Structure formats: structure tokens, C-alpha cells
């Protein structure tokens, strides 16, 4: 899996069989790095499109935490709200984010990666990077967007 740090690769290989992952897509710079190999990514971001923001669609954080703790010695959890939870595997340190959005789900063909993990395609990643750029100011997002754009799919 070119585009992933060895730590992130080890984590993704260890927990790719989690059933809950089949409801999410690997997105962001990590998915882009795996597809075009433009940089090394060290975190894992998973997105699920939901009909609307409501507690009934909440991320199954307890289930995910229990599964991660079965596989890794130290796991820290930071629940931002019902629709975003960050987990950090301590050794080696890898951040895993589960995020939900009520934005319209784009039409795309998921790209299988490993186990229950599928990735969003480049057209989705281009749109999501444009959205992320409006939400935060991180240089890597501009770099990712430019690299995605150079692939002529945005």
C-alpha cells in the first residue's frame, strides 16, 4: 500500500475486518495518497453519508472502541459529537477519524482496498478537498487538491 506510513499500514491491515467499516469510505489525503502516491499519509479518515444529522445515525463509537482495543494496546478516544469520533492508537501513533456528513452523497463507484475498507474515487476526493479547504487552513489540503486536480478528474 504505497502512500501509507508503515504505522498506518499496520493499523489498517489489523482492523480492516471490522464489520462497521463496510458502512464507511476511506477519504481525504490518505485515500488520495493510496490512489496517486503523491505523499505519505499517516492517519486514516473514514466518512459515512447520512440522510440528516440526528442521534439515531450516530457513529457506533463504543463498538468501534471495543474492536480497536482488542487489536491494539492503547487506544484513546475523543468524541467531538455524535457524528465525529477520533481514535488514536498509541504505539505507533496513528489517528483514526470516523466522520459523518449530511451533505448529498455523490454518485461514485467505491474502490475496494482491503477487507471491509473501500475508498472514495478521485472525483469525490476533489470535491471533499474543496470543502475541507473552506473549513480549515492546512497546507496539505491545498497540496492534495492540486495533486488531485493534476490528475484531471476534478
UniProtKB/TrEMBL annotation:
Q: Which Pfam families match?
A: AbiEii (PF08843)
Q: Which UniProt keywords apply?
A: Transferase
Query: InterPro entries, alphabetically?
Result: AbiEii
Which molecular-function annotation in GO is an example for this chain?
A: transferase activity
What this protein is called in its record is Nucleotidyl transferase AbiEii/AbiGii toxin family protein
The protein's organism comes out as: Dawidia soli
